[in-house]
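Exercise: predict the fold of this chain.
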Amino acid sequence: MDDKGELEDPRVEEALQKVLDSAAFASSKQSQALLKYLVARSLHHDDGSLKERMIGVNVFGRSHDYNTGDDPIVRARVGEVRKRLAMYYRSELTDQHTVQFTIPTGSYRVNFIYPASQPDTEERAGLDDEVESVSGKEAGSPSLMVRFGRWLVVCAVVVAALAGAAYYRQSHRVSVLDTFWSPLTDSSQAVVIYLGQNSAFMPTQSYMRRIRESHPFDEDEKRGTDVQLEDLSPGEKLKAGDVYVENHDLISAGNIAASIQIASLLGSQRHNADVRTGDGLSAEDLVHAPSVLLGAFDNKWTMQVAEVLPFRFKVLAGETDAIVEQGGQKRVWVTHIVGPNGAANEEFAIIARLSSSVYREPVIVAAGLRSRGTRAAGDFITDPIALSKFLETLPAGWKQKNLEAVLQVDIVKGVPGTAHPIAFSVW
């Protein structure tokens, strides 16, 4: 990746390094590289390099003729960087005297927010001289000075009111977020985050060697990175030696993304997280520690906890994954496939906050019918704005009760958008 040389602005360089070293970015070298690229190109006003195709080529190693419509990696990763920036500025004790970065939705250009600077001594002295000069000239016009003083008072009151309203909105959102998570964070135990597991047949080394030898792969694919397997030809068969069973280490991308968001949030609240997968969680563990359960059909503990909830996961007719309402209107939500390879334009998920579960300890569930739904559910319960708007619609007293909601998530070119609650229950 060509990073366009030095940043040439020590303030931007210092601020960028703090962001890259933060907990929000330290776990993702790809997000670090992407943000560094976007900051450098934006600082140099290099609009040509900020186009989706050029970012794909320069940052992610795509070919110059790759199809951006079929490969949304840039849009997805920039969205991830936006979320990590929001997480950083929300959770870190950021220095108000450093430059801040924002990436507006629909753009890849970074906006630089420079801290307000105080005038230096000479400028301050000059300003004082000007004020004294004006005061001397108008000394015989008290009405003008009175009006000027009143104008200053009015401005001060307006500014204070606006600042107070902004502070209230932000502090209120944060306090609502803290309240939602309080059943878990009030515990002295580390919060267990369980990601579940998947079972699959994986290609063996000998099969992959045959694929590399029989296909015109580029150098990265020959080294084993970014290998895209094609559909089998009609009549083509896989032999026993071509695949092996993987029952423990395969975790859905959506579960991983959600766990990063939640672990970062818990860290910002000075609370420890204990991430588990596969066989690393037992019923005994759930009895002694609060937990977050991610994923549905790939997480047996989610399925057990949700069994008695107003909205639960169920396999219909032995083949269709669904969310079903156990009482009331008996509603059912399923993912409707609209394209090849399981593509869909919407997903559904469940979030639940249980002050006491069947395992006695508090549990929070964030689980989609599929991986993208789980990712969106994880985003929703760590987003102070979206979560606050939802919680403000709940009946009084929800803070001391259990709650569950069904979320609908729009999918645009494989990337989940903001989740919207479409049904909920409080008890």
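Check your answer against the key: The radius of gyration is 27 Å.
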